[in-house]
């Protein structure tokens, strides 16, 4: 019986494949107002005879170092194609799936690649998209322009809503502070205007013409119970 420790390289038992997978860039999608994808290098690892154990994840540097031959094979078969960033042709509603695949065969992967194609490049498409090549390129340019304008409008509307909410908050805070200040002023005025209770004023005698002390008549004190 062969033990795992007897195998020089246990990774030789694994089925490893590097591949490219388009992943949506949520930030750029929100900024541009249309689906934006990027080609990301992935790795899939399977154990022969075990369908329950599969690793499928973006390729990291340690994956490339662990499986150098598989990585080299992937890079060689991938060729010199650069990573495609933009709106995949499969996300463009005017194209069918078969049209998108035919354009990919001609190395057109995104709507941006159609919109920025030179006259010589766009001529290679012919009537593949069901319209003249130049009209097709113009259609791609309009699609990107409309998406950009709509994105700018959405962002402007969001900024206006945020500004309005901030103004409402400032207004609410100011009103609360003014109310608190008015309450303090009212409390001070009430305290000043309320007579203070204390001992009755001391009676000072007055001498009459005969030199006899007399006192000024005083008003009877109010009954506190009243």
Oligomer: single chain
Q: Give the beta-strand count.
A: 6
Structural class, please? alpha+beta
The major sheet is characterized as: 4 strands, antiparallel
Question: End-to-end distance, in Å?
Answer: 111 Å
Segments where pLDDT lies below 50 for 5+ residues? 1-7
Structural description of this entry:
By secondary structure, the chain is of the alpha+beta class. It has two domains: 7-86, no CATH class; 88-182. 46% of the residues lie in helices and 16% in strands. It contains seven helices and six strands, in the order βαββααβααααββ. Strands 1, 2, 3 and 4 form a four-stranded antiparallel beta sheet that branches. The radius of gyration is 43 Å and the shape is elongated. Mean pLDDT is 77; it is low at 1-7.
Fold blueprint:
Blueprint: E1 15-24, H1 26-32, E2 37-47, E3 50-58, H2 61-66, H3 68-78, E4 85-86, H4 97-105, H5 111-115, H6 119-123, H7 133-193, E5 206-207, E6 213-214
Antiparallel strand pairs: 1-2, 2-3, 2-4, 5-6
Give a nutshell description of this structure.
The chain is of the alpha+beta class and 226 residues long.
How would you describe this structure in keywords?
226 residues; 2 domains; four-stranded antiparallel β-sheet; two-stranded antiparallel sheet; 6 strands
């Amino acid at each position: 019986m062969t033990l795992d420790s007897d195998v020089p390289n246990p990774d030789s038992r694994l089925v490893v494949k590097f591949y490219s997978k388009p992943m949506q860039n949520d930030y750029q999608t929100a900024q541009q107002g249309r689906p934006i994808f990027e080609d990301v290098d992935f790795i899939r690892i399977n154990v022969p005879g075990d369908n329950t154990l599969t690793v499928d994840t973006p390729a990291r540097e340690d994956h490339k170092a662990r499986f150098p031959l598989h990585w080299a094979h992937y890079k060689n078969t991938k060729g010199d194609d650069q990573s495609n960033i933009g709106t995949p042709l499969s996300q463009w509603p005017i194209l069918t799936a078969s049209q998108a695949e035919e354009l990919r065969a001609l190395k057109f992967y995104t709507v941006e690649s159609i919109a920025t194609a030179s006259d010589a490049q766009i001529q290679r498409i012919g009537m593949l998209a069901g319209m003249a090549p130049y009209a097709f390129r113009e259609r791609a340019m309009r699609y990107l322009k409309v998406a950009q304008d709509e994105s700018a409008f959405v962002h402007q509307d969001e900024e206006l809503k945020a500004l309005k909410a901030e103004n409402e908050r400032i207004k609410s805070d100011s009103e609360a502070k003014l109310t608190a200040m008015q309450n303090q002023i009212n409390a001070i005025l009430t305290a000043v205007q309320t007579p203070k209770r204390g001992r009755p004023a001391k009676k000072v005698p007055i001498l009459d013409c005969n030199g006899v002390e007399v006192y000024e008549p005083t008003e009877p004190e109010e009954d506190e119970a009243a």
